[in-house]
Design a protein that fits this description.
Distance between the termini: 77 Å
Low-confidence stretches: none
Structural class: alpha/beta
Strand content: 5-15%
Number of helices: 6
Helix content: 40-55%
Radius of gyration: 28 Å
Shape: rod-shaped
Number of strands: 5
Oligomer: single chain
Length: about 200
Amino acid sequence: ETRANREMFPTLFDSIWWTVVTIATVGYGDKYPVTGLGRVLGIGVIFLGVLTISTLSGTIASIFVDRKMREGKGLQDVNLRNHIVLCGWNANAERIIESLKRLSRGAKQRLVLVNEMDPEDFQALRARHPELDLRFVRGDFCGEKLLRRAGVVSARAAIILSDVSGGHTLDNADERTILATLAIKSLNAGINTSA
């Protein structure tokens, strides 16, 4: 192109500019090749640009979609500070959520639920309480690993309920409550805990 089209591509920078613009937008038309080989190269750059941009945007989109899906299923780590962790689920849980909402006095309360409820039930709960920043970590709250995922280390308070989610019964609820309290206190000694 330099010999046949010197006014369009006088420097190497002009060629780089044309390549970047062609990859990103299929060109402005300010620079263009006139030789047959230059046009073939231009077609290749256009296809390469479409392929590169679509692959890059698809990858980024899939990362965000995967993260949102994992979050909705309770599989994503929670990165919050100064939040409340609500461990367990029973008939009183929604009343506690309502009370926390009233106590927040209009501020958006950040609440992490740790239990074994179905992800669909959590999504319905989240829809009923749009004024709360509700997060969900699915699993047995007696283990430190799961409590770390719920951000207990940086939480300001933890509430532990007798859990009937995930097929648990009230037969061993006290044992699980004590285990969870000890695990929470071992991770965050200064946390306010109500069991």
